Amino acid sequence: MNLVSLRIITADVARLVEFYEKATGAAAAWATEDFAEIRTAGATLAIASTRTVPLFAPGSARPADNRSVIIEFLVDDVDRVRGNLTAFVSDFVTEPTTMPWGNRSLLFRDPDGNLVNFFTPVTPAAAAKFA
Fold this sequence. Notes:
By secondary structure, this protein is of the alpha/beta class. The longest helix is centred in the N-terminal third of the chain and has 12 residues. The protein starts with a strand and ends with a helix.
């Protein structure tokens, strides 16, 4: 088994896609106006319209209702990247902080309120996990 994608359901696909394109520097691949993907080397972030929910199961997902998942991106230098985000991120949850497990993390929310973590391994043990 291989985790390949996470999907965010949103009422405004274009707005969320634009946000993640700016945050990641990756261009979205659009399948339809209701579905786009931000592809990275490790996984894909899919962004889909509420109109796609009934294709799976009506009422099974609600936009802007996540309070348990953190979407995480490995970045080269979280402190440097922090400066690039100020132009379009309005909700920083924490400033770059070194966590007990060796990652330096920056938490912020996307326009739908989903938590996003940009992190950089800063200890040898943490860096070894991503070598």
